[in-house]
Give the backbone structure.
Amino acid sequence: VVTTDSNHGRKVYPNLAGKMTVTGVDELWVADITYVRLQEEFVFLAVILDAYSRREIGDSNASVRMAATEKLTDQAMLAKVAVGGIGYDNLTVRMAATENLTDQVVLAKLATGDSNLGVRRRATERVTDQAVLAKLAADKDSGVRSSAVNQLTDQTLLAKVAVVDSESTVRKVAIEKVTDQAVLAKLAADKDSGVRSSAVNQ
């Protein structure tokens, strides 16, 4: 299949790298554009690669990877994409993979130790292991704590978070799940008006 037709009257630019011997990374970057056929459409992909390592320097956008990731059902492949392996370091694509993951071991790893806070929060929303959620309920990030508390079922831990967490938003999430009336009565007298309101509503 021939994809380039240089037999025309317009200017043809010479291949400046045709005789170049590449001996290391970042000596030569090459670019190409192609299309990928999806089930209902075509999408275009422009990519820049390092000629020596074949490492992707950048692409036109993440739409092709996004479309592929959203269709993935293989948990092992989703795990690789979610942790940023196999060249999938685009954050949007990693988040989409995390959204589709069910592997609790990988989700726990992402929630407790990923370098990106957005991935950690997304993974925490998918964790079901109560022991992992208990650990995440004490995380330094309030978004991770809120997501963890929202998944918790342990009433003792929920009561503790509702009473002592430093962020009122996290406390409110816990209060909405607390069923112990004695704890709710104590929280109804809290100094934070939002916490009092949430406790009274329960």
Remarks:
- The chain has a mean pLDDT of 84.
